[in-house]
Write a structure and sequence with these properties.
- With 106 residues, the protein is α+β, with helices and mostly antiparallel strands.
- Helix content is 41%, strand content 31%.
- The chain has helices at 7-23, 79-92, 94-105; strands at 35-44, 47-57, 63-74.
- α1 (7-23) packs parallel to α2 (79-92).
- It is globular.
- The mean pLDDT is 90.
């Protein structure tokens, strides 16, 4: 989890990701394929574009894939809004996540 400044929010979002992956029958392990979720935020005209980049790299360091999900939020949105955008990003990229995990299992 990168780009999340709030330590409590980072812990909650990490747990959210683990639960999502397990619920969708993807194994979660510290020894497995690293999947990184990176939040970038750009504010303009009282609004904020919150973008999640999801990246997977296999154990040999070879990139497996990258996907992005962007949402528009009010400036200074609550932490729960970022958690909701993370859920949306994972749900919208579920097929890609599954394919990356399947490639890693081969």
């Amino acid at each position: 989890m990168a780009g999340v400044d709030d330590a409590v929010g980072q812990v909650r979002m990490t747990a959210q990701v683990k639960e999502f992956l397990q619920r969708n029958e993807m194994e979660v392990s510290d020894n497995g394929m690293p999947v990184t979720f990176t939040l970038t935020r750009v504010q303009k005209d009282g609004m904020e574009k919150a973008s999640w980049t999801i990246s997977a790299i296999d154990m040999s360091g070879k990139p497996r894939g990258q996907a992005m999900h962007t949402a528009t939020l009010p400036a200074d949105a609550r932490q729960s809004a970022y958690e909701a955008t993370l859920a949306a990003a994972m749900t919208s990229q579920l097929a890609q996540l599954r394919s990356w995990v399947a490639k890693d299992a081969q």
